[in-house]
């Protein structure tokens, strides 16, 4: 089981990297409307470094691999998103020390959200990645703990919730990050970080489905 989980995590990371490479221009376009037009290049640079690093991590366990992804994102992505994505992943990786289970993946999501909110200080409705992560984590947890769904179905529901969260960022005003400098002019634009979060979750789901 450990080997299968190990391979699944590496496959997931490769799929996330591929998706972000594909969406690089789109994410940067979103960031050009309400930021400084670098979110796609930031994320892509980070995941290119992650891809190089995981080649040397083939023997590590799941928690160590995810921890290493977090550290690489912190050092390579830069901007607001790097420490938020990387720091949250690094912190949450501890929950995976006994591998991927229903319980550990819920705990990973909760720890990720907790660190993200802690570091960035953003709340739901501030038009940030928190608006995608919060509904995704809550939906995943409920689907596992209350509805007793298989993890893949729970993840599918979480992706749908994240997608609604991204759409929710369009009509609202930014209160955190660079976009907040625009005040009301940030209304009507999709948040780049919420959108990259959705793409990453979609890539995880795609990995789980294949
Ligand atoms: P920068 O704004 O430094 O250029 P990026 O463009 O890479 O960084 O990332 C911007 C994204 O970071 C935003 O779209 C938003 O989702 C997210 N973000 C910015 N500030 C915060 C914050 N305080 N809390 C949560 N997310 C944030
Ligand atoms: Mg930016
Ligand atoms: Mg920037």
Automatic annotation (TrEMBL):
Domain DhaL stretches: 7-206
Does Transmembrane show up as a keyword for this record?
no
Q: Which UniProt keywords apply?
A: Kinase, Plasmid, Transferase
User: What GO terms fall under cellular component here?
Assistant: cytosol
Share an example GO biological-process annotation for this protein.
glycerol catabolic process
Q: Which InterPro entries match?
A: DhaK_L_YcgS (IPR012737), DhaL_dom (IPR004007), DhaL_dom_sf (IPR036117), Dihydroxyacetone_Kinase (IPR050861)
Q: Name one GO molecular function term.
A: glycerone kinase activity
Q: Which Pfam families match?
A: Dak2 (PF02734)
Question: NCBIfam families, alphabetically?
Answer: dha_L_ycgS
Name of this chain's protein? Dihydroxyacetone kinase subunit DhaL
Q: Which organism is it from?
A: Halocatena salina
| Primary gene name | dhaL
